[in-house]
Amino acid sequence: MGYKTDIEIAREASKRPIQEIGAKLGISAEDLVPYGHDKAKVSADFIAAQASKENGKLILVTAINPTPAGEGKTTTTVGLGDGLNAIGKKAAICIREASLGPCFGMKGGAAGGGYAQVVPMEDMNLHFTGDFHAITSAHNLLSAMIDNHIYWGNALEIDLRRVVWRRVMDMNDRALRDIVTSLGGVANGFPRQAGFDITVASEVMAILCLAKDLDDLQKRLGDIIVAYRRDRSPVYCRDIKADGAMTVLLKDAMQPNLVQTLENNPAFVHGGPFANIAHGCNSVVATTTALKIADYVVTEAGFGADLGAEKFMDIKCRHAGLAPDAVVIVATVRAMKMNGGVKKDDLGSENVAAVKEGCANLGRHIENVKGFGVPAVVAINHFVTDTDAEVEAIKEYVASLGSEAILCKHWAEGSKGIEALATRVSEIAESGVAKFETLYPNEMGLFEKIETVAKKIYRADEVIADKKIRDQLKQWEDAGYGALPVCMAKTQYSFTTDPNVRGAPTGHSIPIREVRLSAGAGFIVAICGEIMTMPGLPRVPSSESIMLNDQGQIEGLF
């Protein structure tokens, strides 16, 4: 039996004018800045006017560690939002924008799948409303102004060896990870080692996603440390006088984007930091706005719960004063079998023993989420090859941990395939049983925070960091940054730093290769193992099969 591709389904969508979607949440046409007929930005004035309203219920969707078998976290986020609306709740969805890097690399798009998608799918996965371009431009404006300041006399006495601000682009390009700039003689400046990160790893991206408004945005941009002097004193973005112009470039990008699901329910799509190298959550502005105008807000955090959910709790909730009322952990029978040792080519055959073996990964995530004081329910994202015995094995395992797992068929059936989960999630959220708390207090030392995440979330025995890294953390504490949370940059595929280790390993070590201070975003980045902040393309990138057909339609995009 053949199935339509995601893009074929999206192309057949019966979309409503974006003004009708806004009206469902009480957003008037005058408060929308339309980008065509099916997407719009929500004005800053409307957002400010909602501040005194009470918050709705916040539902976080996370997942097990991703596998090549597929999990469907965004698909479940979209499906759950549709399901809540289908059972009579006023619900909105908050997800991140897609990076061009993964779209043309190997991961694919970020708009959901099957009959649980956000549309316009092609626009969302490509240029959308230009937010990523604005972030890239603002980031690189600062880069240009730093080098220009040095060229014209270096009044701030920047040590050329200690310029820490790299450039960015929204594409996977390993050749740009480490480069030398300003070659070619006196007219081009002073040669120095530099490099590129992907835009979603930019501190500007993190700042846009954590800032409360334009004033907060400019303050945070000004707080960015771009370089150090010979005496090791920091040079800030505001010292370069770039914060004002960067804010101008980001003015429109700060406004959340409103689109719709295939079932014409409202979805905010805003910001896009990766969860393996950044904090992996959509913008605070989008989430807090949605909470003021919807009774339920379903949002997601990137990759597995060890990365996205932990950062959602310890970074986003800490900064924004948010607290989730329930957490949904997405898992699949296929992924459980892969965690249980089954090869991808053999996933279509029933293997209950492998499902049971692989459930340890799911169990670890359930325990971790509960450790934040929030109830967790498992969504089994259904695939047609799943058997009743395999599904029942997951349900029994989850029940043994004091939680419950619910089979969801939203990919094939839309909202009617996920109503059971929607009903249970609403019951949990309304019960008030969540007693949210972060993993560690602000006053804990920075290295102790890193150890706490490594030991409590990853179940590592130790963190390996040389004296240089420990001394750097101590210097930041002495400089007044000790209260910041930590953002762990680690492979998404494993609780360890080895992407090939599946399941729920213990007894491992977490090596810290580098630490970076994101003073504007408000966290310390700990780079673990071999994780890269500029990904590379795979041997056969998705871009090889993306093209326009004879009708001028896009083919091959997810």
Q: Briefly, what is this?
A:
The chain has 558 residues and is of the alpha/beta class. The chain is built from 20 helices and 25 strands. The strands form 6 sheets. Strands 1, 2, 3, 4, 5, 6, 14, 15, 16, 17, 18 and 19 form a 12-stranded mixed beta sheet that branches. Strands 20-22-23-21 form a 4-stranded mixed beta sheet.
Helix content: 25-40%
Shape: globular
Give the number of helices: 20
Could you tell me the number of beta strands?
25
The major beta sheet can be summarized as: 12 strands, mixed
Q: Which stretches are low in confidence, meaning pLDDT under 50 for 5 or more residues running?
A: none
State the secondary-structure class: alpha/beta
| Spatial extent as radius of gyration | 23 Å
Q: Report the portion of residues in β strands.
A: 15-25%
Mean pLDDT: 94
Separation, N- and C-terminal Cα atoms = 19 Å
3D architecture notes:
This protein has 20 helices and 25 strands. Helix 4 (73-86) packs across helix 18 (419-431), helix 7 (131-151) packs antiparallel against helix 11 and helix 15 (352-370) runs parallel beside helix 16. The chain is 36% helix and 19% strand. The mean pLDDT is 94. Strands 1, 2, 3, 4, 5, 6, 14, 15, 16, 17, 18 and 19 form a 12-stranded mixed β-sheet that branches. The chain is of the alpha/beta class and 558 residues long.
